[in-house]
Specification:
Helices cover about 55% and strands about 0% of the residues. The chain has four helices and no strands.
Length: about 55
């Protein structure tokens, strides 16, 4: 968010939504069970699909 919003807006948004815990940010082991392959991080997804979103 901080790439697109002023710091006070980011802080206000996070105050309302809360800050995710490490547990909330971790991929569930169910991802691998359902997909048959390990979960990937958001950064990897961004790199893979950035062109589809004009990046």
């Amino acid at each position: 968010m901080s790439e697109f919003m002023p710091p006070e807006v980011v802080d206000g948004t996070l105050d309302i939504l809360g800050r995710p815990t490490d547990h909330e940010q971790a991929a569930s082991p169910d991802v691998e069970a359902v997909l048959g392959k390990p979960a990937r991080g958001f950064g990897e997804w961004v790199e893979r699909f950035a062109a589809a979103y004009g990046g």
